Each structure stands twice: as structure tokens, then as C-alpha cells.
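ingest -> validate -> predict -> emit
validate: passed (alphabet ok, no gaps, 491 aa)
predict: started
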Amino acid sequence: MEADAPLAGLAVIEEEALQDAEGAIRSGKLAGKTLPAAIVILAGPILLQQLAAACLGLVDKIIAGNLPGEIVVPALDGLGIGSYIAWFIGIAMAGLGVGGQAIVARGIGGGRTAEAHHALGQTMGLSLIWGAIIGAVLWFGAPLIVRWCKLTPEAAVMGIDYVRILAWAMPFCGVMMVGSMTLGGAGETTKPAIIVIIANVVNIVLSWTLAGADVTIGGLQLPHPPFDLHVSGIALGTAVSYVVGAVLIVGVQMRGVKDLRLELRELPLKAAMVWRIVRVGVPSFLDGISMWVANLFVLVFIGQIAAEQVDGAGLQGAHIITVQWEMFSILPGFAIGIAAGALAGQYLGARNPAMAQKAVLVCTGITCLIMGSVGVVYILAGETLTRIISSEPVHLEHVPNLLFICGLCQVFFAIMMVLRQGLRGVGDTTWTFILTTVSSYGVRLPAAWLFGIYFGLGLEGIWIGLCSEMVVRAAMFSARFFHGGWKRIRV
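emit:
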């Protein structure tokens, strides 16, 4: 198969057509802006938004780590499984959001605002339906996932309760997350970031109030909250925050941002636009699911290691604590990667592929510097970071080692993240799916099994395998990017 052949319904347009216009972004918030200014406008609010989300995850784990002593280990194990479910939710919603975002970006970049309005309405209508479907999947799939991961009975109950509470809020989650992405396609990232921060504040307050954890901040012991719902309380706080976020996102969309507004007449689904959204979004969804399922197998490997040890409880928690800290390095990569995709999409809409490529490369260089610096912190301060969340011996034994391993591969992680997000943003979702799947199942899982189980290196061996795969995946995405087939894709 030729590298730039049509894939999953994506058509190819002639190269000359990309060169026949002046190449400036013609509408939306980024019109008339320089490349550095556009990156800051897009990435700054997204980074703030992602920082708030990461802090929220950190607070959830701090709350779980401060529950009554006999609950802490099963709560963190159960919440660890819940965190992977939350990742699945993000993947599911992003699959739909990427389709809408790509079409909105092309429309705004080319000055076709009517097309962008139509894409926004259709994407938001789909988000409600898709959210309900994802909710049903979570409700019925929770026991199966918990059983695969071989949790203790106490952790299993907490994990299932967490997931099933979130399931009820999925239509609202879809509206909030997909709505934020479509606004980002038009260059508007500030208002979605503010909304996410508000929703996260609601989440933190309610989670602490309902969970019943005794939390100390700066030596000050907070009063014991009025409820003791433990992990279920954390889930309820998250569910309510989705409702708040959805209401605020719809309010912003109906009021409108520069050159984009949600119109009720655009909500009834039309086959032509739905197909355009789906043909871009489905490969993106499959891309995310491919990686998610691979990492679910990683949890199964960890469960196998834990089951073979005399006292293996807490390994899932150690893994998820490391993942939680890793999120802080991912933040700039994710934010700048989204900016790269939105910019590249708008420049392709304006028929300027050279600027699209330059935007992605500049974003990649910036991200390598930032994530590489965070990696140094992981290498030097692993125990300190671990103690912020938990002082359990099992966590102190493993998490610093995992952070050290994680810190060594941050530059490769940065390259992979920005190029992957950039390719998704321009609609090259079929190739991102292919590359992610080949790397995940051809390298990631075999390496994790080889080092973690076959060579008997345990949890640390699994992380050696995971981080080694990042080097391979960065090389694969680099090859696709410099091949240039993504410049000729029509969405």
C-alpha cells in the first residue's frame, strides 16, 4: 500500500490545489496572527486546562491516600482502575471531537464559516448520543475489567462503584469534552479552559466533602467532612462536575465565539456531515482504543505479578501513582500538540502546507525542551514526589524507581505526542491508528511482558518495556510526518 493512498474514506486532493492561495488563515481567532502568537494563544489555555485536570487527578489520589488506614491500599488500587476508565472516556470523546475539530479548523482557516457552523452543530448532536453509548459500555463492562486486573475483593468493589457512577454522567461528559475540542478548532481555547477549571473546582470540593478523607494542608488539619462515601464520593464529585461543565460549554457555544456559534437548527443530524465527522473520528477513536487496550493488558501483567507475590497488594496503586505524576510531563506535550494540530489544520484550510509543517516542527521543539526538563525532576526527586501522595512502604519501594525510568524517555515522549496530535489535527487519523496499533502490539506489550515477567524484573521491568516503546513510536511518527502524505488529505 502506498503511504499516501486513501485510507478509511479519506480522499486525496491534488498538491497544486494546496499552493494556489495566499495561504493566510482567513477567519477565527488566529486570523492575522504570527506563528509564535498563534501557538501561545492556543497552547497557553490548553496547558492551563490540562494542568487543572492533572491537579484534579492528583487531588483525587491524595484524598484516597488519606482515607482510613485499612482502606488506603484497596482504595488506590480501585481508583487506579478507575483512572484507566477515565482515560477510556477521554479517548472515546476525543475520537468524536477530533472529527468535528478537524472540519471546523479547515472551515475557519479557509473562511468557510457556514461549513464550520454546520460541523459544530452536527458534532454536538452526536456527542449526546455517543455519550449515552459510552455510559452503557462502562456500566456493563466494569466488572469484567476489574476481574481481568485481579484486584482484591475490597478494591474490586470500589473500582466497580467508581466506574458505574461515572457511567450515568457520560452524556454530559461528551458535551463538555467534545464541545471544548470543537471550539479549539476555531482557535478558541481560553473559554473552554476556564470552564474546565470551574468544573474541576466543583469536583475537588464535592469529592472531598463526600469521600470523608482527613486531609492536612500545610500542617493545617481540615475538619472531617460530613460524609464517608470513600471512593464512591470521589466518583460523585466527578459526575457532578461533568454536568456543570456541559451546561457552561453549551452556554458559550450558543453565545458564540469569533466566527463560530452553535445554532439549534444545525443539531438535527444530516448524513453528509455526520459521515465527514465519522470518517475522521472513527480512526482516531480506534487509535486511542488500540493504545488503551494495550495498557489494559499492562494492568493484567501487573495483576499477574502481584498475584505471584506473597504481599502483592499495592502494585496497581504504585503504577497509577507514577502515571499520575507522569501526567504533569504530558501536559505541555498534549497542550502544544493540540495547538500544532489546530494550526496545521487551519493552514491546510488556507492551502499553505509549508506553514502547516513549520507550525508542527516549532511546537515539537518547544515540547522537547519542556518535557525533557520535567524528566530531570522525575530522575532526581522520585521519593519526594511519592510521599506527596502516599507513604505506604509498597509505594515508596517502587514509585521512585518508576519515575527514574520514566524521566529518561521524556524527549522521545514529547516527539511522539506532538507529531501524533498534529497528524490527528489535520485529519490523518488512519495513519495514526496504524502506527499506534503496530507499536503498541508489536513492541509495547511484548517488551513489557519480556522485561516484567519473563526476565522477572517485576513492575520496574514493565516500565522499562513501556518507555523503550516510546523511542520506537517517536521514530515511526517522525517517518510519517516527514513523508508528507498528510498534507494532501481532505476531511
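The CA atoms of residues 118 and 362 lie 32 Å apart.
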